[in-house]
Amino acid sequence: MSTSSAFVKKLASNDRPTREAALESLKRFLSSKSSKKLSELDLSKLWKGLYYSMWFCDRPRAQERLAEQLGSLFSDCISRDQFCSFVSSFWVIMISEWPNVDQWRVDKYYLLIRRVLRHNFKMLKLNNWDEELVKNWLEVLEKEGGVLSGDKKIAYALPYHICDIYLDELELIIFEELKGDQEVLENYKKDDKEYIELYESLFKRKLQIVEDIPIKQLISPFEHLNKDALLKTLREKCADEVLNDERLKDWGVVEDDESDSEEDGEADSASEDEDESEDEWKGF
């Protein structure tokens, strides 16, 4: 029996202690040099077992804890060389198994996807948003049959959910170091002098952080879907939940439409004045 098959059998056990012991063992294995021998097929088998470990996890707190543990495999255990293969294997299993997820289990898999996305961003951050790694990661999401490919064979609930959580999780990771200051800010009233000073300081620091992060590149899959997706509601979802999000304007990633419209309005009014002056009767 292969290593991956041995893990799968224990990870998919309906006995909780067996699953927990298998997960701890898997963490150690993925952090070791031996894991480099795993093929993408082996990684998919592992995710099949991890999928069922979540399937058998029933209580909300236990589900949240397990989702965090599974998500952290991407940032704490897997190597950079195998990161994109591990991401691909996760989505292969989620896409293939999604039709079997019933209404009683759907929320915990939504939670799992959220935590996986969070730790994907964390892994990219740990590698200083390396251009090649970001590019390869996005290619996994957009490749033929990928979760953000727009393929009509993929359940639309998956890209819809990613639209809902993408910027929330990205914001959480890129401004992780500012969490303490943000919590302090929430204790002040908005008209307090201290609130204004801290708010302005945080805003400047956020802009400095964003300068080193390829956010425009990170949202490119949604630009492609917004343009090319076959389903109109998916195109609209990408626009409403990602591309038109006010945070992108605050971070200077996209231009503020209001300032543009004001400039256009001023130009229009100026041209109207010119037209009126030209039309004005000046006598014989």
List the keywords:
mainly alpha, about 280 residues, globular, about 70% helix
Plain-language structure description:
It comes from [Candida] subhashii. It holds the Pfam family Nop52. This is Ribosomal RNA-processing protein 1. It is found in: Nucleus. This protein is mostly helical. The protein contains 15 helices and no strands. The radius of gyration is 24 Å and the shape is globular. The model is unreliable at 273-284 (pLDDT under 50).
Main sheet properties:
none
Strand-and-helix sequence, N→C? Answer: HHHHHHHHHHHHHHH
For the termini, the CA-CA separation is 103 Å
Class computed from helices, strands and strand pairing: mainly alpha
| Spatial extent as radius of gyration | 24 Å
Q: Multimeric state of these chains?
A: single chain
What is the residue-mean pLDDT, rounded to a whole number? Answer: 88
Percent strand equals under 5%
Helix share, percent: over 70%
- pLDDT under 50 segments (min length 5)? 273-284
Number of helices: 15
User: How many strands in all?
Assistant: 0
The coarse overall form would be globular
Protein name: Ribosomal RNA-processing protein 1
InterPro entries: RRP1
GO cellular component, one term: nucleus
Region (Disordered): 249-284
